[in-house]
Amino acid sequence: MRRTSASLVAGALVATLAWASSPSSPAVALEPSAGVADLTQDINKILSDSRLTIARAGVVVKSAATGEELYATDAGKLLTPASNTKLFTSAAAAETLGLDYRFPTTVLSSGRKAGSVLAGDLVLRGTGDPTMLAEDYDALAAKVAAAGVKVVTGKLVTDDTWFDSQRLGNDWSWDDETAYYAAPISALTASPDRDYDAGSVIVSVAADGDKVKVSTTPETGYLKIVNKATVGSETDVLIERQHSSRTVVITGTVKDPYQEWVAVDDPTAYVASLFRTSLAKHGVKVLGPTVTAAAPAEAKELARHESMTLGELLVPFLKLSNNIHAEILTKAMGRKVANQGTWSAGLKVSTDFAKANGVQVINMRDGSGLSRRDGFSPGSIVQLLTAVRSKPWFTTWYESLPIAGNAERFVGGTLRSRMRNTPAANNVHAKTGSLTGVTSLSGYVTSAEGEPLIFSIMLNQYLSGSPKDIEDKIAIRLAQFTRATATADATQLRATEQGEAGDLECSWLKPVQC
């Protein structure tokens, strides 16, 4: 695979076949064993942490082997899931679009070609590919030149009509508007690197003698850079795009190199700038202006780029908790099912999928969990995680979840620095979720006796620092679970080895790689 290190996943997945070998068994009424009683006592003790005194905590643990509920508190309460929402979006996408789904990006001609002159318009049409890089648009431009086109007498038309024109998600906070993890959603977009943070540009600063040098990845003149930074004895710099503009203002002092991921204001216009520059580089001159419109029905294809498959995309999407992938997939589902590339159509697909698989408590406002009006119960999350085990795409999806304590970035993902050197390491496969005052962890773990367990932990409305260590302690305790009487090794119930970077999903806090 050209783009991601998904192949790294295979060696870390010891329990994959066991997890995917059979669908969940129906619930079996069993007398609580001494081990279950011990588990209940230990989880209650973990949840008695003073940081949760004023907070809300919902936890459900279920045996995938017997269907037995091993632990539950507030199982049916509606809680804010943060990025646990991506469990629903990714599963619905795998079911609806299929693991072989690809996003095509095409270049079309809408006029008559005479020699090297295209008497008409050149159209760039997108379907939402979040993996498009500047080099991919450059390759499309090279194909146009290779087709013999040197002059376009008409316009450069950008067709982003595969999705609607609503760029920002429902209920997204206004002060996230310039953040790359809340970038605008468009059917034409570009990513700066192979994390595929579509709709953003990396802005870098470095001391260059007595001046601060600014560069961007990719190189682009789309952004207007206002550099007010100075060389200093430390790096204390702010790189921030002004709201609803292309202007990026840089202030503070720079000693060591630093970079920031910045969302562009208009992904379609940004892509048009990249593509026009590449066309010129390859000797293709477009005489007319750039406009945004639908491609004429009679337009003919000149060049095409196909994205990686959805099965491959699940790795950067889920491992790194990529918000933009979630929203693009949501609109792509809406387009496929209802021929409407909208949030409302796509969210209906995800909600219908969840309900068809037994989920009772669900309120989806976006695909990523950035909205604070998203709501699920821990019981509903466990129900989804139970139901998808029988799906033909489950193994690929399961392997795409972050794996606790595995330092490989595209294996451990957002769990790579958590639960290291504990029974949960390379065992827990789960989705993280973080917003200010919200944290969640839901997924799968194999017990000390080899019993597959499904769990969901949702903590809301705390005022302390992030209590992710509480999630870790519960997950580690589940990895130690036996049905016989046993006391958990308290020394193993430790939290993250490396400190969490604030309250947001750690992978959202670039350039921090926690």
Describe the overall structure.
The protein is built from twelve helices and 23 strands. 25% of the residues lie in helices and 23% in strands. Helix 4 crosses helix 5 (267-281). It has helices spanning 16-20, 34-47, 85-96, 134-146, 267-281, 310-319, 323-338, 343-356, 378-387, 394-399, 409-412, 468-479, and strands spanning 56-63, 69-73, 104-109, 112-114, 117-119, 122-125, 151-152, 156-159, 200-208, 211-217, 224-227, 230-231, 236-241, 247-254, 258-263, 285-286, 290-292, 300-306, 362-363, 375-376, 429-435, 438-446, 452-460. It folds into three domains: 6-23 and 31-100 and 311-508, DD-peptidase/beta-lactamase superfamily (Beta-lactamase), CATH 3.40.710; 104-165 and 267-307, D-tyrosyl-trna(Tyr) Deacylase, Chain: A; 200-263, no CATH class. It has 514 residues and is of the alpha/beta class. The chain is globular. The chain has a five-stranded antiparallel sheet, sandwiched between helices. A five-stranded mixed sheet has the order 17-8-6-3-18, with helices on one face. The longest helix has 16 residues, at 323-338. The model is unreliable at 1-15 and 496-501 (pLDDT under 50).
